[in-house]
Amino acid sequence: MNKHLFMFVLFFLCTNVLLAQKKVSGVVKEADTNEPLIGATVVVKGTTNGVITDLDGHYTIDVNANDVLQFAYVGLETHEETVGERTVINVSLASSSIKINEVVVTAMGLERKAKSLTYATQQVGGGELTRAKETNLINSLQGKTAGLVITPNSTGAGGSSKLLIRGNKSAQGNNQPLIVIDGIPMANSTTTQMEGEYGGRDGGDALSNLNPDDIASINVLKGASAAALYGSMAANGVVMITTKKGSVGSMRVDVSSNTTFETTLDAPKLQSTYGAAVSGSGALAQDSWGEKISGEAKGANRLDEFFRTGMTTINSVSISGGSEKNQSYVSYANTSANGIMPTNTFTRHNMMAKETFKLFDNKVTVNASLNYIIQKGRNRHEPGQYRNPLTGLYTFPANGDFRQYKNEFEKYDDVKGYPVQQWYREVNQDFSANPYWVLHRNPHTEKRDRMMASASIRYNITDYLNIQGRLNYDRIADLYERKIYASTSTTLHNVNGEYRQERDDSRQFYGDLMVNFNKTFDAWSVTASVGTSFTDLKETGVSLATSGDIYIPNYFHLANGSKNGAGNKRNKTQKRLNSVFGTAQIGYKDMLYLDVTGRNDWSSTLSYTPNVSYFYPSFGLTALINEMTTLPEAFNLLKARASYSIVGNDVPAYTTNPTHEFSNGSVKFNTAIPFTEMKPEKLKSLEFGFDLSMFDNRFEMDFTYYKTNNTNQYFVMSVPAATGFSRYYFNAGDIQNSGFETTMSWRQPITADLSWKTSFNLSYNDNVIKKLDDRTDIKESDRLTYVSLGSVMGYDMRLLEGGSYGDIYSKTVQRKDGVIVVNKEGVPQFTKDFEMVGNVNSKWNLGWSNSFNYKDMQLYFLIDGRIGGNFIDATQAVLDTYGVSQNSADARDNGGVDIGNGTKVDAARFYQAVGYKGVGGDYYVYSATNFRLRELSIGYAFRNLLGAGKDLGVSLIGRNLFFLYKDAPSDPEVSMSTSNGYSGSNYFALPATRSFGINLKATF
């Protein structure tokens, strides 16, 4: 009886338990990107009952109504939900900028706990790059990373971008950070750049080639301490790119299509009131200082007629999946862009494949990847005076018939026997030309073929010791072709035209071998690596051009010249860097971490000197205060960190042993004195800061102060011709950068369906030339007084001791008691010597983003800005000189230009004096302070629209939509070149653009 009663009670209890249990399912996604999370854990709190999400982020678990589910994913915040009566629970996990237990990828691809890092880094997810795509993926990081300043060239699709971390450090060398892909340094060489007012082309950079949909994350290593393991290549910091790879699970297909339209945001303000003087024959004068226009101003709308609505489409598809032993990822992307300037087009094809194999009971891991890129650009804009359609477009008089020259930009010349340019004035009268002639009869194309192949193998000797080897091959082949038709301005070309081909090939071979150790001994932990690496770079450039008298006009063949071969040039550069390195991190009770690194480089660029080998160390310390003592309950993390490093930076190839070169059909002998005592630059860096997380990680903050001093700069000076040489090199100088960076974020759940996240970043950098020429073994008269980095229209960017990198010098308008000094004809008078009129670098940079999530809808916007610094608008100076600017019309309407005391002088005399060749100095130097709505996105995710777990995301996107504030007449972030001396100036660069469009994402 008792036995039967016991069995009945047991059956009853079990039945009630089974009846109380139910199945709950749902999807786990990343809040920032709305992408499903593969491998997220879903656990019943306080139990071992748990599951892992599949390839589509789906899960199903048996629970009771009163259970609490915990959702977790590495690098994201843990989230809890009480089950209740629900059977479907979808969760979005928020990202965390300070993750207590997150593992991040650091220098050389080594993994470290984020809380143990002794230096500042900032990681951005791949979703930030694909929310509103750019043809150059790095531009999508603008305003999102403290301390990283990104300035795209204003040359159109596929153009280069300048990256700067914590200011300019090298006077004559490269200031851009090292780009690393999956732990391996990438060749990010920038090809030809404009370096002068005559103009020049932007050949693009290597970073712009990558497909943004292939990027999993970008981690910015800001200081030299963070990047010390990469050695002299990384003296300016590192941008670490981690690409996507295959994962365990069934096959997953991701498809995206992004289409945006571009319009001009900030075209020059031109007047339509006054025209050019008309001669008796009806010819128009070259400027617009004539009478008021009595009839129709036919040229008033020439900008609207010339610029078109640009369009960019980026389509991509990727397939991933695999088993425990093998994971695969393949992708293809196509980019097609039509710029705002007629005839400007750009196309790119990206193909990528990655394989991961785990062999011998997971003791051996093999990775292999192949990335192939083909791209072509046509008529990418070239800033400067010549070969630029904007000079003729902007200076065209409002009373001229612009459509006439648009529809008939050429006419056949019976005498010459070929079509010639048709324009309202003589072609060689000045730099002006018919814009449509430049586009159709000065065409140029750029082609790039690039392949990146890498392989790695890791063998786990034990669970705490492994050995790893990696190889990478990166090849870039560029072909540039230009045709100049007869009757183009002869300032730079033969009267019968010119044909030019340029071929540039870059091949970088990289390899490393490392032994890695990671073990815990009771309260102590030790993570260490030792290794060796080599980088072998070969660059070859060949420039072929017709030269002398062209035999047959408009016959584009290299043999069509009287001096065949005289225009040819060839250069070859080979550089090798061999290195050994080691790093160790010792931790105590998860509360103290000590970092030590050391690296020794042997650089071929320092051959023939005693300094071919150079060593540099770094040290860092982190203290987790929240682990050392009991803090108020609100604190989740409080970490203090400090680091110090010394990093070398080698010099350009053949500086210590100059070589001869082939130029203009003959050998050009070296005229530089070999510098056999040359030393590498030495960058000393100190930084300290703290990381803070509070209120269940809803509030996060980090702060870093840094100071760097870069000594042993290399300079060049001329020597008397009697020596048999023209120049020599020497080491000197000390450039200091100091400042701080901070990021803050707050996440606020408002309701069960609505949440808000806001992030703010701010950086400040102060640059000082502490020493310029501090040599002690020379006469004072032989000392270098300043270095010119570049000049545009009378503005010279100079380095002077006590000044700052980017100081602008020019002759300026004389003033007395605030009044402009003029002569009796009303012409402004100018200073005899150059004076400092500004600095192109903004000391303050900031970004503020906000994201609102309501169920399956998301609203995101980003505002960023720069405070301080100056901007040279040489375009505005020319427009004032020619009388086509709105300024010139306003001055005439007001009876002249007020010089400061109520006295007005003739507008034509005033502007023709101050606007020509930059002699007005500060008159065309504006504040670079600006704030803008950088990015906007409104999206909705249609769940299971295409089947279970098959979602469709649709978002409306916009970039660079409008200014909240600016002082300059054009966008102060317009840039003509990534070269050191040409940032912060505009000389007929393309106007800034705004873009808006739609982004579609589907998952199968």
From TrEMBL:
Membrane topology: Multi-pass membrane protein
Stated name of the protein: SusC/RagA family TonB-linked outer membrane protein
Subcellular location, record wording: Cell outer membrane
Domain TonB-dependent receptor plug positions: 115-238
PROSITE patterns per record: TONB_DEPENDENT_REC_3
Family that this chain belongs to: Belongs to the TonB-dependent receptor family.
SUPFAM superfamilies referenced in this protein's UniProt entry, alphabetically: Carboxypeptidase regulatory domain-like (SSF49464), Porins (SSF56935)
The organism of origin for this protein: Tannerella forsythia
GO cellular component: cell outer membrane
Protein origin, superkingdom: Bacteria
